[in-house]
Amino acid sequence: MARKIVTLYIDDSSIRLMVSRGKRLNKLASAQLQLGSAELKEDIKEAEITTKIKHLLKANKVRAKKVVLGISGRNCLSRPVTLPQLPRAMLEEAVTREAKRVLPVPPDQLYLSWQARPAPEGKIQVFLVAIPRRSADNLIKITRQVGLKPYLMDIKPLALARVVKEETAIIVDMQSIEADIIIMANGTPQPVRTIPFPSEVLSSEEKLAMVRDDVRRTIEFYNSNNPENPLDDETPIFVTGELAEKPDLGKSLADELGYPLSVLASPLKNPKKLDLTNYMVNVGLTLKELDKEAGPSVANLNALPAPYRAKPISVSRIIAVPSAVVIIGLIAGGIMAIQATSASISAMNGQLDNTNYILEQKLLRKQELQQEINQLEQKVATATASRDSFTSALAEIENGGSTINGDLQAVTDNLFAGIQLSHIAHSSTQINLSGQALSEQEVLSFARKLDKCGRFTEVTIASIRRVGVGQAESEQGFGEEGSAEGEETTGEEGEATGEEGETTGGEGGGEEDAGEEYIEDVNEDMVFNIILKAGGNE
Predict the structure, then answer these.
(1) Does residue 254 form part of some domain?
(2) For the chain, how many structural domains are there in total?
């Protein structure tokens, strides 16, 4: 006769009970819970769960004591890790050490369960499951109070993964208070995510939007970490819970993500045609006892904490006691010698294995540190290049400032009484000076001094105009380059002016007043513009 299997799944929203006889389904029952409020005390929550479990068992006439217990994946952690080949005696210590390294929560706050299987290149692949101690202790305490004895336990995501027949698939379960997302690649369920909803009053469409975004991020995370084996477009997405109850929601999710849709189906026989939509976790828990009907998931460990497991009685230990007495009586001396030698060899082998493992961990850490050093060296090189660029730019700015200061100093050093500057404009190639002088002769003298100072390659008087009250302005432009040409032109003008003066003087005394009036006009204020080309000696 097939064995009876009783499974019990408990989370903050419901209790779900399933009873099967082998792979034939017999009973389903559930009870709703209201444990989401943070204001409820722990003893009140425990009392409600205890009462509901008792009622379910009594109403469905379930008298079995041994149960397979399932809990939510919220706050639980699961992860595959690879370790070097180690003796069984050292494996538990190595797993604990690796858990401290990879898990974000200290191991002393968790119950660790693990399952080892061979891996390529002489390695061991270990699948870890970590459950918060407080959650596990409370649930197991409650089940024992109602007379049940959990002998197997699993978390919801791994139970769902066990139902799927595909080696690579996406699994999404959406319930009233949370959703689970599992990527199963080559039979390994990883990554696994459990997403709590902020409120049970969210509509199915609002929850679907949150689930869709998280599924997309989970797929992107998996593909980025497995570039050699990403999920292709033919990977099926299996849905259950509300996504299966409302087909339009499941179809919308699959269409937006671009993967073919499948509804998660039970491999159990269901002669009563019971609705299993919200009992897929119980189906997965049942399959822990039915290996042939279970899918290819490699994660089929017992997550029940070690302190709550029944201590097996070893037949070999029972037989070993009288046998040992007989053997000791016959060859006590030889056995003692062999045991001493064997113990010594075993101890040395153990120390050697431990040393090899520690050395391998150190080498891995050295490689990680070397990668970090290389990254830091690249950052230092980039920072050095940026510093050199900034230093060069600053030097150019300082050189430009020195040039400007030198040009302005040369201009002010050559100023004298009778010259007043009103505007100075400096560019990279020239200086534009504007101002007033008492006479044209003052302007010419100022230009000669600027040329002689040797700082400027070219001194050009761009314009001069006379300013006087009631008189017409006369303007004269100069384009001489260099002081020598300016002096020669000015000399020719002086000679012309002298000749004109002689001619005017010969016309008689009547013109003397006119000559004096002309001299006064020449002495009126002059407005000038001088252009200097930079590049001379400092």
Answers:
(1) no
(2) 2
CA distance 291 to 296: 10
CA distance linking residue 284 with residue 164, whole number of Å:
9
Tell me the pLDDT tens digit for each residue of 486-509.
333 333 333 333 333 333 333 333
Tokens 């990680």 map to which residue? 368
pTM of the complete model: 0.60
Per the CB < 8 A criterion, the answer to whether 182 and 99 are in contact is no
Q: Are residues 376 and 429 in the same domain?
A: no
461 plus 398 within the same structural domain: no
**319-363 residue pLDDT tens:** 655 665 566 666 776 777 677 777 778 778 777 877 887 888 888
CA distance 455 to 406: 9
Boundaries of domain holding 438: 419-497+518-533
Cα dist. 332→108, 111, 335, 337, 346 in Å? 44, 43, 5, 9, 21
Distances (CA, A) of 319 to 312, 313, 338: 15, 12, 21
Here the tokens at position 322 are 């009288």
Which two three-digit tokens encode residue 242?
Answer: 């509300």
Same domain, residue pair 456 and 484: yes
199 inside domain: no
User: 344 in a domain, yes or no?
Assistant: yes
In a domain, residue 383? The reply is yes
Comparing 228 with 342, the larger pLDDT belongs to: 228
> Edge to edge, what strands does the sheet with 123-132 contain?
77-84, 123-132, 110-119
Q: Are residues 395 and 429 in the same domain?
A: no
- Reduced to 3 states (helix: H, G, I; strand: E, B; else coil), residue 55 is helix
Of 462, 490, 458, which is closest to residue 476 (Cα–Cα)?
462
Supply the pLDDT for residue 312: 64
Q: Retrieve residue 365's tokens.
A: 């850490």
Final residue of a domain: which of 377, 403, 429?
A: 403
Instruction: Provide DSSP, 304-351.
Output: S-GGGS--PPPHHHHHHHHHHHHHHHHHHHHHHHHHHHHHHHHHHHHH
524 and 451, same domain (yes or no): yes
What are 428-477's pLDDT values in tens digits? Answer: 789 999 999 988 899 999 999 989 998 889 999 999 998 864 333 333 33
Clarify whether residues 448 and 523 are in a common domain.
yes
For residue 62, which phi and psi values (nearest 5 degrees)?
Answer: -95, 115
Residue 48 near residue 311, CB atoms below 8 Å: no
Q: Choose one of 403, 436, 459: the last residue of a domain.
A: 403
Copy the structure tokens of residue 130: 């970590």
Residues 356 and 396 in one domain: yes
Residues 398, 445 within the same domain: no
